[in-house]
Amino acid sequence: MTTLLIGIFLLSLLVITAVAIVRSEDLFSAVMLSGIFSLLMALNFFLLDAADVALTEAAVGAGVATVLLLAGLRLTPPREAPGRSLRALSVAVIGATALLMIYASFGQPTLGDPTAPTQQHVAPWYIEKTPELIAIPNIVTAVLSSFRGYDTLGEVFVVLTAGIGVMFLLGGGRGKPFSRLDSQAEVGLSGHLIPKVMARLLIPFILLFALFIQFHGEYSPGGGFQAGAIFVAGIILYSLVRGEGLALSVIPPRVLLLMSAGGALLFGSVGVAGMLMGGNFLEYSVLTTDPIIGQHLGIIVIELGVGLTVTGVLLSIFHAFAARD
Amino acid sequence: MKLLGLFNYWVFAVLLMIGLYALISKQNLVKKIMALAIFQSAVFLFFITMSRVDGGTAPIVQAGVANQIFSNPLPQVLILTAIVVGISTTALGLAIVVRLHEEYGTVEDDEILAMDRDS
Questions:
Q1: What is the phi-psi region of residue A243: left when phi exceeds 0, alpha when psi lies from -120 to 50, beta otherwise?
Q2: Closest to A225 (Cβ–Cβ): which among B11, B52, B81?
Q3: Among A73, A86, A206, B50, which residue has the least CB neighbours within 10 Å?
Q4: Do residues A43 and A142 both lie within one domain?
Q5: Is residue B45 in a domain?
Q6: Residues A132 and A56 in one domain
Q7: Which of B6, B73, B94 lies nearest to residue A126, judging by beta carbons?
Q8: Alpha-carbon distance values, A200 to A59, A95, A194, A241 (Å)
């Protein structure tokens, strides 16, 4: 009951934040509000027993997305042109649709109903078989990387493709991934004492936590996607405080591009390795003589691939935005 | 009590519609991208709402605890990857907006359309 009430409180805050994002004409405050929106969403996910998703939303939505939007905002006008929305018609359409959807919600099973159709079909099979077939505690990681490996491989390639698209649009051309690489003039927030000291204290722990999330993802909430996003958040904090030039000398552009492509390649080659060992594409059981060890090996390697690609792509995207004049 | 159990779906509907409203009525392209993000988050909320089971916990098997109830791991897997894909596509959209601003000098949809019509 308490959880339900806290959930209702957080969801109401979520709606208020969303309205404020839409109404605010100052895009800077809209971006800040969208960070709050993501954090509230992460709290809701946590209340709904989705620890992995909450971790991802907090790292990606509240961390990386806010910085990317700010980096984009630096290159575009900070204010929305006033009074141009097409109000009457859209309010009518939206209102009618919202009412229809709320009407339809009365046919939905209530929150947490164990007899809901969603809980009846394949989910019990995964919960029952994961300890037996994969033998890792985190069922979400097991489904993500082994049972639904094809899907995850596809997602990794979508992330890679989006990264390539951003580099095409904002990159500096052949041999020069970021348009303003040589400029050392930007020193970020280094003139400000408090962010500098805080960042210096926080960055090692953020990076260490990212590695923990990466390699402990089979036993606790975590995995490549979350670890990549947290690692990127740490490096972005470093570039904000010490300037992008230094951040790019820590992880050079070449390495970033290699990580992006190499991670996806690593994932794909684990799949092919399964085929060469006589199994199906992305079947890890055949990788070693013991199927369980094979599963563990496959999962660790593909999570590493996911982490590399996510880190490489998100950091490349950040640098591509930050380097644009 | 039954009504309170539907609150998540109402918030889903309202958030989805707030996102859609901003998407069709706002002219600023950066705002449109944020609207898409709200729309997307609403769908995430819908999926995760469906994954919850009363008395359940996050789907991580604890050693030595028998007959645990878990929330449904499948929607969680879908949304976990969707969040990361979502930020990548948001970044791509934002990159297109930045390029549009470089070419047209504005990020207002109607002004860009007017310029296209004039040329």
A1: left
A2: B81
A3: A86
A4: no
A5: yes
A6: no
A7: B73
A8: 19, 49, 10, 9
* B16 in a structural domain: yes
Q: What is the mean pLDDT of residues B50-78?
A: 89
Q: Token digits for A66?
A: 């806010």
Say if residue A15 is in the same domain as residue A122.
no
| pLDDT over 60 at A186, yes or no | no
Average pLDDT value for chain B: 91
Closest-CA residue of A relative to B6 is A110
Same-domain status, A75 and A136: no
Q: Which residues of B touch A155 (CB under 8 A)?
A: 81-82, 84-85
Query: Structural domain tally of chain B?
Result: 1
Domain extent, residue B114, equals 8-53+71-118
Domain count, chain A: 2
pLDDT band at A175 (very low <50, low <70, confident <90, very high): low
Q: Which of A67, A140, A76, A144 is closest to A314 using CA atoms?
A: A67
Q: What are phi and psi of A282, to 5 degrees?
A: 65, 25
- Confidence (pLDDT) at B4: 85
Which has the minimum average pLDDT: A178-182, A273-277, B8-12, B25-29?
A178-182
Q: Does A124 touch chain B (CB under 8 A)?
A: no
- Residue A306: is its pLDDT beyond 60? yes
B90 contacts in chain A (CB < 8 Å):
65, 68-69
DSSP structural state of residue A109: P
Residues comprising chain B, all counted: 119
Cβ proximity of A213 and A299 under 8 Å? no
Cβ B84–A101 below 8 Å, yes or no? no
pTM: 0.92
**A8/A60 same-domain check:** yes
pLDDT digits (tens, 9 = 90+) for A134-168: 888 999 999 999 999 999 999 999 999 999 999 99
Q: Distance from A193 to chain B by nearest Cα, in Å?
A: 31
A106 found inside a domain: no
> Is residue B33, in this structure, part of any structural domain at all?
yes
B-contacting residues in A 178-237 (Cβ below 8 Å): 219-221, 223, 225-226, 228-229
Per residue in A32-67, pLDDT (tens digit) is 999 999 999 999 999 999 999 999 999 998 889 999
Domain with A319, as residue range(s), is 116-323
Same-domain check for residues A18 and A125: no
List the CATH number of the domain containing B40.
Answer: 1.10.287.3510
Q: Is residue B44 part of a domain?
A: yes
Mean pLDDT over the full length of chain A: 89
